[in-house]
Amino acid sequence: MDAVFTDGDVVVIGPPSKLRLLTEVPRAVIGVGGLPFARRALMNAPRGDGRRVMLLPGLFNGDRSNLVLRRYLKALGYRADGWGLGRNFGQRAIGADGERLFSAIEAMGGGEPVTLVGVSLGGIMARIAAHRHPELVREVVTISSPFAGPPSATNVWRVYELLSGVRVDDPEVIAFAALAAEHPPVPTTAIWSASDGFVNGAICRDDRCRSIEIRSSHVWVQHNPQVLRAVAGVLGGG
Question: How far apart are CA 213 and CA 158, in angstroms?
């Protein structure tokens, strides 16, 4: 695990090591390379119940980034689709108060609650949606989403500021982060990795929700066979 230490009575969580950050891409390639060999095991997962599943992409990514996960869940029997809001540029994508995201969830559900599976920043947004509109959300699954700690525990907060156009110390961003850190009023699972090079795994889960540890890079984490199987297991009740 990366740096978690105390400064007096305060617990300080540091970002992942530079070595983990520098090895993100080769580790991602290795992870994705295991997909063809995991196909049989992946298809032995519990069959889907036909529920609607919305996949929320990570920072700067769009629906294409979740193509493998979407096709996998559809093959199992879920009605899985992307969020349809383009690339994830933070509140620029979902609206200042998240209203675009909430409308997209409501439209997808058509009167039924939707299961939200969010990657990284997408998972934080999924937790916020569950807080703001629990009637629209059936369940939340986050994948490597740093909802339980400060931006300083990541190696990407400056990139977030650049792409989103807002500062991490902006009052609205702080309020969103505080809401995401609270336990949602719906079943919630956090999938996280201690070997993540972008965000400290310690802030990707907490003691108030189910957590599943996998071994993966942050890059292409949603394509990792361990993650695919974990998501299928959660949705299938495993």
Answer: 26
